[in-house]
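Predict structure. Chain length: 265.
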Amino acid sequence: MKQAEDFRAECANIETLLRGIAPHDFARRTAFKDWTFDRILHHLHMFNDAAFLSQSGEDGLAGFKRDMGAKLSSMPMAQVEAEYCGGLTGPALLDLWAGFYPKLADAFAQMDPKARLPWFGPSMSARSSITARLMETWSHAQAIYDELGVARQSSDGIENIAVLGLNTYGWTFMNRKMDVPEPRPQLVLTSPSGAIWVLGEEAGGEQVKGSSEEFCQVVTQTRNIADTSLELTGPNAAAWMDIAQCFAGPPNDPPPAGSRVMKTA
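Prediction complete.
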């Protein structure tokens, strides 16, 4: 699956970034809920492992779910994730995460994209599972790039995230128990390579236009729409971008304007 290779490439870019920082930098707190670099790697590694276990079916994931549920009854998620990673921090934690993501990419690359895999909610296709890993990896890493003051150079692999963002248009509203406004806006996005992606059907003028990277930042809630130059046409597009959420879980409000931006290097 191409998505598996896009996931591998994104992880490799993040690894390169983190190999160049000092050991004490892993304790730096980011604008994403004060998560440190260490916390981000703990989180990504634990759920990468869960995605790998899911390939063995429900039985493969059952022990993970049971153990995590038991621990969450007595400790916060951050501690559960840290313990899952053996309490490692800094370069040693980076080695753990970096040593595993190629294994996950290799496994998904060999799978039938339509194979059904269990997860914490409904099952999903293998293609959707590795796309979710790509989305979560890309979005959490944005906080690291921002904290370090490094301008990110995304690849056209983020088209997977843009498609996910479009496909979760209805979910954004239903998750908040709101009626889904129709029609769904069309996306006209400029890719990192300069190509124009037209995603979705023409929608009577309802449209989101601009940088694909900024669109992905909004739907993953790493940016407030006010901190982008995206052009919104139509009330549906405006309502969507105010609350967009492409990830599972209870409704999350986007960050306040100006709260998640790149620091000056």
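Summary: The longest strand covers residues 186-190.
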